[in-house]
Amino acid sequence: MKWMFLILLGIMFPATMKLNFTGVDTFGALPKGVVYGAEVVVSEFTKSKAGNPAWHRVFKIINAPEGSGPVHRSDGVLIAEDVEYIKSSGRQIFDDQGLTDKSRWAVMADLQAFGEDVSPDTKDFDFDPTEYIGREIGMVGENNVYQGNVRAQLGKLVQAQYIGFAVDAPEMSEAAAVPA
Fold first, then answer.
1. Using CB atoms within 10 A of its CB, is residue 84 exposed (0-12), middle (13-18) or buried (19+)?
2. Is residue 61 pLDDT above 60, yes or no?
3. Structural domain includes residue 35
4. Cα separations (Å) of 109 from 4, 25, 50, 120?
5. Which of 8 and 57 is assigned the larger pLDDT?
6. Which of 26, 84, 124, 140 could form a disulfide with 155 if both were Cys (CB 3.0 to 4.6 A apart)?
7. Per the domain annotation, does 11 fall within a domain?
8. Is the pLDDT of residue 178 over 60?
9. How far apart are alpha carbons 80 and 143 in whole angstroms?
């Protein structure tokens, strides 16, 4: 019985998937902040609540600033005046990225951050999410309020070479060219 379940999982979640990035729109600028270093600890196919295919990722923060200060959402709205930053190193950020036509631009941007050569002209990309486990990536976090609490979430992935940079630093201009 157990082996039948595993066979069904293999059918529902293939080892690879062809993705088509032709005609994907690219989008603009990065929010202000710092690029954190993160390691991918989980990367796999899953399904969204609506039943659509998705890319489930868990990122472990490997370096993060400490201290206190104001917290803003990525759109600039002030959430809190003075918040003690959580000692974030080692903290995990969970993210599910849809793999639908509407989300192709975001998937393409994330793959570009991992150094993949994909563009709006890429027709068939062999996508195996397990290839990203253990990889280091730059992560721009966002802060939002959920049930009255300030929570961090993934805002954008950028190439690891930008870890530690302020998002608005001149060196980030190349990373800013990658779709947000």
1. exposed
2. yes
3. yes
4. 37, 11, 23, 10
5. 57
6. 140
7. no
8. no
9. 10
Q: How far is CA 141 from CA 34, 88, 117, in A?
A: 8, 11, 24
Domain count, the chain: 1
Percentage helix, strand, coil, to 5, in the chain?
20, 40, 40
Say if residue 59's pLDDT is above 80. yes
Residue 170 is predicted with a pLDDT of: 67
CB of 33 closer than 8 Å to CB of 134: no
d(CA 98, CA 46): 9
For residue 55, give the amino acid letter. W
| Cβ atoms within 10 Å of 87's Cβ, excluding its own | 10
1 lies in some domain: no
pTM for the complete prediction? 0.68
Compute the C-alpha angle 10/11/13, nearest 5°.
65
Domain span at residue 116 reads: 16-176
